[in-house]
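Entry:
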Amino acid sequence: MTEGLVIRTTGNWYRVLPDSGEALECRLRGNYRLRGNKQTNPVAVGDRVLFELQDDGTGVIHDVRDRRNYIVRRATKLSKQTHVIAANIDLLCVVATLGLPRTSTGFIDRLLVTAEAYHIPACLVFNKCDLLDDPDLRTLQDKVSAIYRAAGYPVLEVSALRGDGLAELKQTIAGKTVLFSGHSGVGKSALLNALCPDLALKVGAISDWSLKGRHTTTFAEIHPIQLITHNSKLLTYLIDTPGIKEFGMVDFNEQELSHFFPEMRAVLHGCHFANCTHRHEPGCAVKEAVEQGRISDERYRNYLSIIEDTIKPQ
């Protein structure tokens, strides 16, 4: 058996990079899917797998190593299945834009909460800062950036078009396995091209009628690149994934959700009730912090929205 890293998934085939040698196409052993797995993809980019080389030069995956972490979402609104976006991640970069297309804080918070739950550090990368000559967009971005900095998240402003902020982004991601995630049209592929022009990833335009992005990345893929920062060359794995329209959360309950908002987690000890949901209970330290402006009212509203939309009361 040979061990390797899954760097691309396309249907029933997986491109695997061995620890030594060149990448090859692998398929999954036939009965592996029959193990009671409720995931649409039992193998995801970032997985480390054991495979056996076949006479035709392809491989057969026999086992998947235990994952250190992963980002998972509900496959569809009506589906009970889940979809693993990527596994074994060092950093989640939520790529967002506040215009063309507009990324809501509700979408951002669903991604950040999931990252918190699976112990994945995260940062926000606001792309297209070349559009911030518009004073209204500048004001909005300053407001949203302040919300997330106050919650403890690093916030970067970049422009894949002009190169603004790329040096800081390189320092943030160098030597790590980094998942870039966000809506279609926010410029994830353009950003990866700016970080490493040799990738030459396909980029698309914003739809004129909907002002939303079109999918240009059609499957998940890891791009191993060498990033030079502080005079050092570091192997870095960039994970490019298809744009997400909605992020359906799974496996949360209303008692634990607040633990995945860092600014709420910091005051939970002050709640009168140990099982406080921070909605209607008296003596709630979270609601008090919101009223005093120590916790963002917008983040709190998104917290309530997640409970109402995705979590069944226990």
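Confidence is low (pLDDT under 50) at residues 204-216.
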